[in-house]
Write a structure and sequence with these properties.
heterodimer; A: about 450 residues; alpha/beta; D-Maltodextrin-Binding Protein, domain 2; five-stranded mixed sheet; 15 strands; B: about 300 residues; MetI-like fold; 2 domains; about 70% helix
Chain lengths: ~450, ~300
């Protein structure tokens, strides 16, 4: 009898805990882990303690950042900086939960997609007063000045460095097929994809991104094809409604439907695309500079290179550049000046150059771009685009707070239905355009000035 | 003097009585506090959130919204597919895990050379992290470099590699296979432990009475270990129903949600929408479904009378 009751008790408890871990897993519980420390700012002895949250921990990067912190602490003996980190895939949730709980570290590195949401929620504060007085502001590149680090025209973060798309190509495959080892125009891109594909050998032209955020790549092409610098026309209607927009959408997804990319790539995200290229399944990979290090480690020298993104038929490059770890300041910090000092230190030309080299990303200063590091080898495929004056910023509408939902879930479902033949082109394009237009209209009503 | 003495003695007696009456509750208090803080509070909070518009991106716009979250869940056009997937996922996974686990336990309940070594090996999957299992199976089912395509091609069953994880409506099957492999040892361990508690004398007596192997299995062994069987199936169903990790790693729910189950769908969705209200509504719904399931399951299997033969 007692035994039976005990077992029922165990069953009940297990049921409860199993159900709870499933539904509350990404809730408040994870913010508590590393948050407590940030609140305990040093009060004794005039020594100020600030905290910094890094969303991109890796053994190399963590060591680099801690080295920076050490140098900063040597220059500013009255400030200590505590380094904290959160894995990238969890970072967005972590910022939001910590922001909601009012326990965000003094300085956080944040990406441009989350910036608008964090700023509008009031979790991070405007850096405009500091930026106005900053002596380095004039030396920034045009790309840095135009960066999406603003909310309601005020600067909320100082970009760490830029990432942009470039095309990784299998130069040996290009040689085999007698193709020039570069991709000048989008027409070349589609033509090369076709020529490189040889399904019998398991070779495909493109590392296609059918999973999360794949729609951003498609929209880049739609913008280039329709010569538009936005996902919307002047009236706030999606460019996908136009016949040219729809045709461009179809042409881009035909890369998959016509078999120029592995069938599995319908689910591919970042890791799978990169693996597809590294393991010799695909000949062209559209990716950011941090992949260079992975390629250097895993591929034979002389079999690959990076070339700039193709130009549209009007001679312009419609590309999207962004930052992943710009320095922002928590709205509830008690040490504004110290936090800015730390941001200023990390953003100095000297440290920015070292940082950009360490991360193989594009620096924020004009002078730094002239460094020989950025004019040779694969990185030149990126620096080249940024030095070109015929450049149009063609990024996603990151001011829409629900953009992440669109690129991460809604567009994935819709395009995957289209790619697997479960939904026709017209419905797919209309659904996507309707969703975007509805959000844009709501945004324009709330923010009439822009 | 004496008057004051009795006056002071009386409260002390009653206080002692009160203390004695409270004693069990005081001793229970620490456990109660833990249960309240870690079980009751989150449950109540989840119930509260499920009736609220609570999106992290809109901190100015948090308010009670009635049944809006539940309505949105039922209005979601993908929901029927997801519920169907959840059902297939649970029935196929737990069913096969149970059958294979039972067979494994029966096989290991005999004495033979090298039994300990074999036992350690077959129970190994249970000790491997789900993440690793997901990655390994993902590679095994890979179209270009996967082991399974290689074997099938070698056997001449297919003439070109199949992209198992990219076929709509069936891409959940490789994930179920991985999940079965992962969970068989759990049933094996639990059932083996129960089998070892079945007294030898009963089987010997049955042998003398002329009962065959099959009859012994169904009329002695299974009734004897029924409490364990009921409980392990009950727990596995709950765990499997709530598990999303392998799906998340192997297919990400794709293509077009055809391999999503309920938790993986909502996990993915909430990760991008930060809509905690809707996530809580789903959590509450899952709690209700699982509680109903538990009650019905225990009734049907006559758990209370189990184990008495």
């Amino acid at each position: 009898m007692g035994n039976r009751r005990w077992l029922t008790g165990i069953a009940a408890v297990s049921l409860l805990s199993a159900a709870l871990t499933a539904c509350g897993g990404n809730g408040n519980s994870d913010s508590a882990a590393s948050a407590g420390s940030s609140a305990s700012a040093g009060s004794g002895g005039g020594k100020v303690k600030i905290s910094y949250l890094d969303p991109l921990p890796s053994s190399e990067r963590t060591a680099f950042m801690q080295d920076m912190i050490k140098k900063f602490e040597e220059q500013n003996p009255n400030i200590t900086v505590e380094y904290m980190s959160v894995p990238w895939d969890e970072a967005n949730k972590k910022w939001m939960t910590m922001g909601a709980a009012g326990i965000l570290p003094d300085v956080i590195s944040i990406d441009d997609t989350s910036l608008a949401g964090m700023a509008s929620a009031g979790y991070i504060q405007s850096l405009q007063p500091f930026y106005d007085k900053w002596d380095q502001a004039a030396n920034l590149t045009e790309a840095a000045k135009q960066a999406r680090n603003k909310y309601k025209n005020e600067v909320y973060a100082i970009p760490d460095a830029f990432l942009l798309q470039g095309l990784f190509i299998r130069t040996d495959w290009f040689k085999e097929k007698g193709l020039p080892e570069k991709i000048d125009t989008w027409d070349d891109y589609f033509e090369d994809a076709k020529k490189l594909t040889d399904a019998s050998k398991g070779r495909y032209g493109i590392s296609f991104r059918g999973g999360a955020n794949g729609i951003i790549r498609a929209m880049e092409y739609v913008m280039a094809a329709t010569h538009s610098d936005s996902w919307f026309d002047k009236d706030g209607k999606s460019i996908l409604y136009t016949p040219e927009g729809k045709a461009a959408f179809k042409k881009f997804y035909d890369l998959y439907l016509d078999g120029y990319s592995p069938k599995e790539s319908v689910n591919w995200g970042f890791n799978e695309m990169v693996q597809g290229f590294m393991t010799g399944q695909t000949g062209i990979l559209n990716q950011t500079p941090e992949v260079i290090a992975v390629a250097q480690k895993n591929m034979q020298e002389g079999t690959w290179n990076v070339v700039p993104m193709p130009k549209s038929d009007d001679g312009k490059r419609y590309i999207f550049w962004g930052f992943t770890a710009a320095y922002a300041m928590s709205a509830n910090t008690e040490h504004k000046d110290e936090a800015w000092k730390f941001i200023e230190f990390l953003s100095s030309p000297e440290n920015n150059l070292a940082y950009s080299k360490a991360n193989t990303s594009i620096p924020i200063y004009k002078e730094n771009l002239k460094d020989p590091f950025f004019s040779t080898g694969p990185i030149a495929g990126y620096a080249g685009s940024m030095a070109d004056s015929n450049i149009v910023f063609a990024g996603p509408p990151s001011y829409l707070t629900r953009l992440g939902e669109f690129t991460g879930t809604y567009a994935v479902q819709e395009t995957q239905k289209y790619l697997t033949g479960n939904q026709d082109l017209d419905t797919t394009v209309k659904n996507l355009a309707d969703w975007l237009t509805k959000e844009q209209t709501a945004y324009l009503q709330q923010n009439p000035q822009s | 003097m004496s008057a004051t003495n009795t006056r002071s003695a009386r409260p002390s007696v009653s206080r002692r009585r009160l203390l004695r009456r409270l004693e069990p509750y005081l001793l229970l208090l620490p456990a109660l506090v833990i249960v309240l803080a870690f079980f009751a509070y989150p449950v109540l909070k989840a119930v509260q959130l499920s009736f609220m518009h609570y999106v992290l991106f809109e901190p100015q716009n948090i308010a009670y919204s009635g049944f809006a979250n539940f309505k949105a869940l039922f209005a979601d056009p993908v929901m029927p597919r997801i519920l169907f997937n959840s059902l297939v996922w649970v029935v196929a996974t737990v069913g096969l895990q149970f059958v294979l686990g039972f067979a494994l336990a029966l096989a290991l309940n005999k004495k033979f050379r090298g039994k300990n070594g074999l036992q350690a090996v077959v129970f190994l999957p249970w000790a491997v992290s789900a993440f690793l299992i997901g990655m390994i199976f993902k590679w095994m089912f890979n179209q270009q470099n996967g082991l399974i395509n290689h074997l099938l091609m070698g056997l001449g069953l297919i003439d070109r590699p199949v992209a198992f994880l990219a076929i709509p409506h069936t891409s959940i099957i490789p994930v179920i296979i991985a999940m079965i492999w992962y969970g068989v040892p759990f049933f094996g361990i639990m059932i083996l432990a129960a089998l070892q508690s079945v007294p030898h004398e009963i089987h010997e007596a049955a042998d003398i009475d002329g009962a065959g192997r099959v009859r012994q299995l169904f009329q002695i062994t299974i009734p004897y270990i029924k409490p364990t069987l009921v409980l392990t199936v009950l727990l596995r169903v709950i765990w499997v129903f709530n598990s999303a990790d392998l799906i998340y790693i192997m297919t990400g729910g794709g293509p077009a949600n055809t391999s999503d189950n309920l938790p993986s769908y909502i996990f993915n969705k909430v990760g991008y929408t930060t809509d905690f209200g809707q996530a809580s509504a789903l959590g509450v719904l899952m709690l209700v479904v699982l509680t109903l399931y538990t009650i019905v399951f225990l009734r049907i299997t006559k758990y209370r009378e189990a184990g008495e033969i």
